Amino acid sequence: ENLVADHLSRLVNSEVTKHEREVLEEFPDEKLLVVQERPWFADMTNYKASGLIPDDFNWHHKKKFLREANQYVWDDPYLFKIGADNLLRRCVTKEEATSIMWHCHNSPYGGHYNGERTAAKVLQSGFFWPTLFKDTCEYAQKCDNCQRTDGISKRNEMPLQNILVVEVFDCWGIDFVRSFPSSFSNEYILVAVDYVSKWVEAIASPKADGKTVIKFLKKNIFTRFGTPRVLISDGGSHFCNSQLAKALEHYGVRHKVASPYHPQTNGQAEVSNREIK
């Protein structure tokens, strides 16, 4: 009986040789069995390389296919598209297109230009795929760096409007509040607050429309505090409509709309809304 078995297991074997050969973690069989997406130019490549036309094409498809074949050139192992400028551009897959757009837009020599200029750079680099212009525009719009640093275009800019308040009840902010349990079919609270005195007028309402706003202004504001000089609201359809515009014009009230990117313009009404909630 061996009484020192544990000691034997801890002995250092000086005869053990170390194998310095690294273990390869690549599996060639798995690479061969991977199902790859069929390139968009596979049919054209087969036709140019071997003259084969897909069997599932009808007469109209074959006629269109053969007409488009004149715009392609096969130079093993690549297929090239003849552009309108008679220059050859290599047809690429979707995977290659993503890498190409990154180099033509995000790289240090890309410049983060818009979609059209990025597409022009791709064409100048000698590449082509059918959805080139659409993909480059979407890629440029989704670019995180461009969204963070790009300025607001003139088309999307909101006009700046100054707010002048001099006397009590001259300027009112108005807004609808929701997210309350329905009571007597009322789902909204229409709130108006004076910018100077912070006086609040509010009513419950089943609807949020222009008629409700006009009725509220006439009954709760105009007849009690007089017609104000300015009414400030957001850009909702219940405030920006022809009925309310005509009513305010009739009473000589100036309507100012808070910009979507600067809701603090109507901040006093928002503060009153939070207090009511």
From TrEMBL:
Domain of life of the organism encoding this protein: Eukaryota
SUPFAM superfamilies: Ribonuclease H-like
Ranges of residues in domain Integrase catalytic: 155-277
InterPro entries noted in UniProt: Gypsy_RT_Integrase-like, Integrase_cat-core, Integrase_H2C2, RNaseH-like_sf, RNaseH_sf
Molecular-function annotations in GO: nucleic acid binding
A GO BP entry: DNA integration
UniProt-listed PANTHER family: ENDONUCLEASE-RELATED
Name by which UniProt lists this protein: Integrase catalytic domain-containing protein
